[in-house]
């Protein structure tokens, strides 16, 4: 393994080809990562945090690209629920993404960006790369793996495929497979990107990026992260601070302006092709199918691993019913599991926002 110090992000280059579920392999894979807190001498205090679809390795501190706090700053740090005075926290950018790990924008064998020649990846491929990172760091067993949303998918995949590598699994606001509705929302976003003339079949790295399509994709997805009650409380039908009678196609309503801001700001930090690949990986994810059709069989080797699953009552993207299905599968193999549904007004994004009850659950489980 080679640790890249000349790259804009902290990365490790894997010294072996990475096998993928598609049957293809990737050579020279770079995995970008960050660490927080000191690793104990016996390496027993490491926690691996998996990020969600549009997240990255900057879970805490100041994000070097946006200048904003890390995406889970309120959860990770000294004296926080995941206390970096006690634990060594690792967070890696998933392969297929665009924050330093190998993805569609990376150079292929011919030196040009892979673009749509990048191989199809799965959630298990993302985790496989992070297991290789752990090997490179000399960490054989983790104190815990933690993730919300797509990060929760990775945590479950880790438990299903590498159960001996962690003592605890904390999966928040996630699912064992996407519903048809989940896939449909992602397809709307993908079609918005591919309909942008600047997408150019994915070959846009030497020209204008398909920012308009990517912004629309982000807008559509962001709606699924919120609850109706939360949107109503925050925006209602309030108009912008201008003449309410000047009807047209400007952002008349505050909620329109909010979504447009979310979409436009997203294009400054994310790659459209990465969005295509990662959403497809999430849609392919099906732990039961990987285990021959029975979800319980996916966790057959995880009987000694402790699990904690958390859902939110306003999350209609990954519902409490979705998470109960995982709990039932774990019960079927006698894996020790605790489950809690928390009340929060924020919808799916509740795991990222100020929900004190979640802090208590995380702190109690991580121990």
Automatic annotation (TrEMBL):
Pathway of action: Amino-acid biosynthesis; L-methionine biosynthesis via de novo pathway; O-acetyl-L-homoserine from L-homoserine: step 1/1
One GO MF term: homoserine O-acetyltransferase activity
EC number: 2.3.1.31
GO CC terms in record: cytoplasm
Function statement: Transfers an acetyl group from acetyl-CoA to L-homoserine, forming acetyl-L-homoserine.
Protein name listed in UniProt: Homoserine O-acetyltransferase
InterPro entries in alphabetical order: AB_hydrolase_1, AB_hydrolase_fold, HAT_MetX-like
Binding site for substrate: 218, 349
Signal sequence interval, chain numbering: none
The entry's keywords: Acyltransferase, Amino-acid biosynthesis, Cytoplasm, Methionine biosynthesis, Transferase
GO biological process: homoserine metabolic process; methionine biosynthetic process
Family: Belongs to the AB hydrolase superfamily. MetX family.
Reaction equations catalysed: L-homoserine + acetyl-CoA = O-acetyl-L-homoserine + CoA
Principal EC category: transferase
Keyword Amino-acid biosynthesis among UniProt keywords: yes
Recorded name of the encoding gene: metX
Catalytic residues, chain numbering: 149 (nucleophile), 315, 348
One Pfam entry name: Abhydrolase_1
Assembly mode: Homodimer.
Organism of origin: Aurantiacibacter gangjinensis
């Amino acid at each position: 393994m080679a640790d890249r110090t000349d790259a804009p992000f902290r990365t490790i280059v894997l010294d072996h080809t990475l096998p993928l579920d598609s049957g293809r392999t990737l050579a020279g894979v770079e995995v970008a990562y960050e660490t927080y807190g000191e690793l104990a001498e016996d390496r027993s205090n490491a926690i691996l945090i998996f990020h969600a679809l549009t997240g990255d390795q900057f879970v805490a501190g100041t994000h070097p690209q946006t200048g904003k706090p890390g995406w889970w700053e309120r959860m990770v740090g000294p004296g926080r629920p995941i206390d970096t005075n006690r634990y060594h926290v690792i967070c890696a950018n998933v392969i297929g993404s665009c924050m330093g790990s190998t993805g569609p924008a990376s150079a292929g064998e011919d030196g040009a960006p892979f673009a749509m020649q990048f191989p199809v990846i799965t959630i298990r491929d993302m985790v496989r790369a992070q297991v290789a990172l752990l090997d490179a760091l000399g960490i054989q067993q983790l104190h815990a793996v933690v993730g919300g949303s797509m990060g929760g998918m990775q945590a479950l995949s880790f438990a299903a495929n590498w159960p001996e590598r962690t003592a605890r699994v904390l999966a928040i606001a996630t699912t064992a497979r996407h519903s048809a509705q989940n896939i449909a929302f992602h397809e709307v976003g993908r079609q918005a990107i591919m309909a942008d003339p600047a997408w150019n079949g994915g070959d846009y790295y030497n020209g204008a990026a398909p920012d308009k399509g990517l912004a629309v994709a982000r807008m559509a997805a962001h709606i699924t992260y919120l609850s109706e009650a939360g949107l109503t409380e925050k925006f209602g039908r309030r108009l912008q601070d201008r003449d309410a009678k000047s009807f047209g196609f400007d952002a008349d309503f505050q909620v329109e302006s909010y979504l447009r801001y979310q979409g436009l700001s997203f294009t400054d930090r994310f790659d459209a092709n990465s969005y295509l690949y990662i959403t497809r990986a999430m849609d392919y994810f099906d732990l039961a199918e990987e285990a021959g059709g029975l979800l319980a069989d996916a966790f057959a080797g995880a009987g000694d691993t402790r699990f904690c699953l958390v859902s939110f009552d306003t999350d209609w993207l990954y519902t409490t019913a979705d998470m109960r299905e995982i709990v039932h599968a774990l019960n079927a193999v006698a894996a020790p599991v605790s489950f809690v549904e928390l009340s929060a007004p924020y919808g799916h994004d509740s795991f990222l926002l100020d929900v004190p009850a979640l802090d208590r659950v995380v702190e109690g489980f991580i121990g």
